[in-house]
TrEMBL record:
<dbReference type="Pfam" id="PF01019">
    <property type="entry name" value="G_glu_transpept"/>
</dbReference>
<dbReference type="InterPro" id="IPR029055">
    <property type="entry name" value="Ntn_hydrolases_N"/>
</dbReference>
<protein>
    <submittedName>
        <fullName>Gamma-glutamyltransferase</fullName>
    </submittedName>
</protein>
<keyword id="KW-0808">Transferase</keyword>
<dbReference type="InterPro" id="IPR043137">
    <property type="entry name" value="GGT_ssub_C"/>
</dbReference>
<dbReference type="GO" id="GO:0016787">
    <property type="term" value="F:hydrolase activity"/>
</dbReference>
<comment type="similarity">
    <text>Belongs to the gamma-glutamyltransferase family.</text>
</comment>
<feature type="region of interest" description="Disordered">
    <location>
        <begin position="514"/>
        <end position="550"/>
    </location>
</feature>
<keyword id="KW-0378">Hydrolase</keyword>
<dbReference type="GO" id="GO:0016740">
    <property type="term" value="F:transferase activity"/>
</dbReference>
<dbReference type="InterPro" id="IPR051792">
    <property type="entry name" value="GGT_bact"/>
</dbReference>
<keyword id="KW-0865">Zymogen</keyword>
Length: 550
């Protein structure tokens, strides 16, 4: 499969019969295979998500967590799937006193949710069996894929951490050196694990022999996870999206514990200005963008909200247009007289020819997660214990047994009228919302899809650091921002740091897919009409399921 891929993955693709864009070309091919076999967008998303865990192991896998936005055409419904992982019941503040324990090693790991989430949405909304959907990922793990220049660079970059766990044995050549670009990388242990899941089902991971193996590995290495943690199965929760209007669009994005609120606030504030005011390649537009990104990030930090404990929050002020107007007035004042003032994820977007849409973001939290691989199962454990609050006991995401970590994801579906128009998302921790924002502003301004995704990008932190791809923008812009009190951090062209937007959009009767050139992704769609797999006749009721009309 990998040997047939062109050396430069296709970044822009057009098809009338479905479309998928992911961060790794082999995963795109996995999703394309399933679309071509008659699978719907959910089938393709699950196949690609499992494949990403194989060919982009530094970013996601069976040991991580998965979030997504889904739109189903029949019945017409749009909802978020909260696939948060869970803190083990034995995890307490006293048992992870040092930051290093929360970042690397067995104690850094929450109960993985990705298998449960992918199994759930496939069973409820897919049209193909798990065994078929897993075929591309199993084949990819068995036969291997070619290491990319980016993956080699990451393996070299993380050199100081390989000794913190056993991951070097699995991801470095002979356990010692980074692979060379273009070398084949195979994962037979992971292939065997995926084959077992295909045969026995997802429950095997949480309640079968596989669960016993995970618990034994954790007990042997002083980790927290035990059989009872796994047996609870971190089933996802379907939630109502957060939304706003932007021009003629209806934007529906991921609610807490994700960061869709941040994107909504940014769009609401931007809406208070004239379109000509927010061109990011002009002095005033760049300054406005920095102020908006910074303020929305600040508000998210000031107003944490854990959806399972809604009474902790008195209102949803940062989502309202009235609040956006107030912030816009404050920003206008600062535009006139201004004084001084980490994570790794993957994303994919899919649309099928039936009108179903998926925007899916999943992660093992930091690059290579906890740097620990289960020796007999071949998957990388996450390090989501680093995403809890450890100081403020009143904080909604303060570590507690079975609590969920704070997330920065913002998978998003945009509608024109009642029809899905764009599926979009990005990795990048706090840069996710700002990356998606800039692409949407460019699309709204009339830029072509690939131009909008490829364009130079910026990000502003709460502390006033502006990260920008300096060589790709006007050379007077960084100095202009310095005079306004910002600290400038110059990034390389098409920086890994600046997110990686995967977007699918409908253009008339065609679907266009764009994979961000900042990483290894590709976009592809079937070239001939495909016949849909037989639809499920009877879908079992799901406790707590609600219909969320667009």
């Amino acid at each position: 499969m990998t040997s047939e891929h062109p050396p430069w993955p296709q970044k822009l693709s057009v098809s009338k019969h479905g479309m998928i864009a992911t961060q790794q070309a082999d995963a795109t091919q996995a999703g394309l295979e399933i679309l071509g076999a008659g699978g719907n967008a959910i089938d393709a998303a699950v196949a690609a998500a499992f494949a990403l865990g194989v060919c982009e192991p530094h970013a996601s896998g069976l040991g991580g967590q998965t979030m997504m936005m889904i739109h189903t055409a029949e019945p017409r419904r749009t909802f978020a799937v909260d696939g948060s992982s869970r803190a083990p019941s034995r995890a307490t503040i006293e048992r992870v006193p040092k930051t290093a324990m929360r970042l690397r090693g067995h104690r850094a790991t929450t109960v993985p949710s990705t298998p449960a989430v992918l199994g759930y949405i496939l069973a409820q909304y897919g049209s193909l069996p798990l065994s078929r959907v897993l075929e591309p990922a199993i084949r990819l793990a068995e036969t291997g894929y070619r290491i990319t220049a980016l993956q080699r660079r990451l393996q070299k970059r993380e050199k100081k951490h390989w000794a913190d766990g056993n991951a070097a044995r699995f991801f470095l050549k002979e356990g010692r050196e980074p692979y060379k670009t273009g070398e084949m990388f195979r994962q037979p242990v992971l292939a065997r694990t995926l084959s077992i899941l295909a045969r026995k089902g997802i429950e095997e991971f949480y309640q079968g022999q596989m669960a016993a193996q995970i618990a034994e590995d954790m007990a042997r290495n002083d980790g927290f996870i035990r059989k009872d943690d796994l047996a609870l199965i971190p089933h996802p929760i379907e939630r109502r999206p957060v939304s706003c209007r932007f021009g003629g669009w209806r934007v529906m994005t991921f609610p807490p514990p994700g960061a869709g609120r941040t994107l909504v606030e940014m769009l609401n504030i931007i809406s208070q200005f004239d379109p000509g005011d927010y061109d990011p390649l002009k002095l005033k537009g760049l300054l406005l963008l920095c102020e908006v990104i910074r303020r929305a990030q600040l508000d998210r930090g000031d107003r944490p909200f854990e959806p399972n404990f809604y009474p902790q929050v008195q209102d949803r002020r940062m989502l309202t247009v009235d609040y956006a107007r107030l912030v816009a007035r404050q920003i206008r004042s600062r535009l006139r007289t201004r004084g001084n003032t980490g994570g790794e994820t993957t994303h994919l977007s899919v649309m099928d020819n039936q009108g179903n849409v998926v925007a899916l973001t999943q992660s093992v939290e930091r690059v290579y997660g906890s740097f620990v691989v289960h020796p007999d199962l071949g998957f990388l454990y996450n390090n989501y214990m680093s995403a809890f609050e450890y100081e403020d006991i009143t904080h909604p995401y303060y570590l507690r047994p079975n609590g969920v970590p704070w997330a920065s994801v913002a998978p998003t579906i945009i509608f024109r009228g009642k029809r899905p128009y764009i599926a979009i998302g990005s990795p990048g921790s706090e840069r996710i919302a700002s990356s998606v924002l800039q692409v949407l502003l460019r699309i709204a301004g009339g830029q072509a899809p690939l131009d909008a995704v490829s364009a130079p990008r910026i990000h502003c932190t709460v502390g006033g650091e502006v990260h920008l791809e300096a060589s790709r923008i006007r050379n007077d812009l960084p100095e202009f921002l310095r005079r306004r009190g910002f600290e400038i951090v110059e990034k390389e062209p098409f920086a890994f740091y600046m997110g990686c937007v995967q977007m699918v959009m409908r253009e008339g009767k065609e679907l266009a897919g764009v994979a961000d050139p900042r990483r290894d992704g590709s976009a592809a769609g079937p070239t001939v009409p495909v016949r849909s797999a037989a639809s499920r006749q009877d879908t079992p009721d799901v406790p707590g399921k609600q219909d969320f009309e667009t």
